[in-house]
Amino acid sequence: MADYMDQLFKNVKKKGQPATPAPPPKKEEKKAPETKSKLEEKLAAITREAKPAAAAAPAAITLEDVRKQLSEIKKEGKVAPGPGKELEEKEPEDQKSETEKELDRSDKKEIDSYGNTKIYRLPNQPLLYYWTPVVRPGSSEKAIINTIKEVATRIISIAPYKIRDPEQRRNVYYQRILEIIKDSPELNIPKAKFEFYADAVVREMVGFGIIDSLIKDDQLEEIMVIGPNTPVYVFHRKYEMMITNIEFFTDGEIQDLINRIARQIGRRVDIASPLLDARLLDGSRVNATMPPATVQGSTLTIRKFREEPYSIIDLINSGTLDVHAAAFLWTCTEGMGVRPANILISGGTGSGKTTLLNVLASFIPDTDRVITIEDTAELNLPMRHWIRMEARPPGLEGTGELTMDILTKNSLRMRPDRVLVGEVRHDEAFTLFTAFNTGHDGSMGTVHANSPQETVIRVTNPPMNVPDVMLSGLNFIVVIHRLHDKKLGTIRRVTEIAEVTGALKGKPKTDTIFKWDPVPDMLKRTDEPMEYMITLQELSGYTRKQIEDEIDKRATFLTKLLRENVHEMRSVSRKMKDYLTMQKG
Ligand SMILES: Nc1ncnc2c1ncn2[C@@H]1O[C@H](COP(=O)(O)OP(=O)(O)OP(=O)(O)O)[C@@H](O)[C@H]1O
Ligand SMILES: [Mg+2]
Q1: Residue 261 lies in domain
Q2: Whose CA is nearest to atom 7 of ligand 1?
Q3: Domain final position from 303, 327, 358
Q4: Which tens digit of pLDDT belongs to each residue from 254-269?
Q5: Is the domain of 243 the same as that of 278?
Q6: pTM of structure
Q7: What integer is the mean pLDDT of 297-320?
Q8: Looking at the domain assignment, is residue 200 inside a domain?
Q9: What is the DSSP string of 189-240?
Q10: Using a 6 Å cutoff on CB, does residue 309 contact ligand 1?
Q11: Ligand 1 contact, 240 CB (< 6 A)
Q12: What is the rounded distance in angstroms from the CA atom of residue 188 to the CA atom of residue 164?
């Protein structure tokens, strides 16, 4: 094994030289001279290349490192034993977490299962239990996995970030690693274990190690690692907060994972800079902390990205709002072609603000130029004329910061039709309200607040400091809540749509237009007269009745999409735009 690896690395060392096939080691002569030369060819190929991509591969390691590690592995006798010998299989019992052992002993009741996942209820446990098989390689397996990883890092010349689609990325790596395993009889891996090792290496190189299966579960919204020797928690779409059988045994394991994630996006987390807030290549949001920022160990919070964004039909289907409120918001966002409304979406943490903003933004006509400004880019819009801006924290030297406000100000110099600010928290509020007041009609943002009144108070007080009079530019506040329903579990509801009035008279107030009634679980329209409707009447020449009729027609149209089960965001957005084109005739 060591001879063989030595040979490989000698070849790697001959950078820039033509490939010289190494003589096959004596021991292996009969066995696989051909497969070995394949491997050598690959090695030779990367030595010929200038290797820019290989240099960008994760974890640049030196040849010396690899050799040292290999000889160490060998010294410890952890390398695959001689030909013919079976790999030592470790009993997985000691690899189980305490929580899992507790689950084994308990009088559990399975309440759901899908794929490999099982959901249990445990007596006297407030949280449900999420169980998924955890592959924890034994120490001998780990040594082999590491060896394959080292070889793969050298041989595979595609940097993971070059393949954006995570599924494709995995497949490409899986195939390459399988080739390496097949081409390396020296590793002495029984054929039946090829896939086990290929899976394990992929999980560690481009996946998420032991939380990989959680990342792949579409039912999970959030994955929360809170430290070593304590279970990983997950937030499930249906069952909310759950405890899992997965546990990191050391802080080092968590830090390794954090560093791997950080490296993929060109960032670093360490004692000097122990916080990371970032977006993964697939759009998922990641926050990582390390000691000393978190006392009990490193943490990782992953908000998973939904590949298929919610459409208005999805939100209607899940009861977040009804067709009437949806048709109303559609009309306001589009503005009957004359005057789109400026809207703030308010709600608590994880209530669905960004999702709702995304849905409303999908109503924006294709003729408009849209600029979005976010802390971490989450919006996923169907239009082409869209510029995405993303804030950036200061670098290690404390320079280079791009605040939300700097970006929002800049966006106003880019001749936008619509400015959408992901989350309004500080000075950017003033800038967004400037956009509201300077003809960028149909601009929107989200605010952390629980009611229209609280939104007004928050916006007009520090740190946002928007003067009362500027509120005249804001038309509507849409409030969304995440609630717990005894039967349905977590539900999200638009609980109020309010119009902001009176700002020009120095007394901004909010008038409720729609209000959610929890008993029948319905959004009820109130009879409030609307300033916005008067503006629409004046600018469009339609009567109030005609506008209301149009909203009803749109509600009927949405009902039709619902019935036909058209719910994919792009198709819904297309059909809604086609509807408007037809209206114009
Ligand atoms: N109406 C909805 N129905 C079902 N799930 C939803 C709905 N809205 C949002 N979600 C899910 O809830 C999670 C949080 O949504 P979102 O990011 O939109 O919330 P937020 O209020 O913007 O959160 P934050 O406060 O962290 O910015 C996401 O996983 C999203 O897919
Ligand atoms: Mg958000």
Answers
A1: 92-136+210-303
A2: 352
A3: 303
A4: 999 999 888 877 788 9
A5: yes
A6: 0.75
A7: 94
A8: no
A9: --GGGHHHHHHHHHHHHTS-GGGHHHHH-TTEEEEEE-STTSEEEEEETTTE
A10: no
A11: no
A12: 33
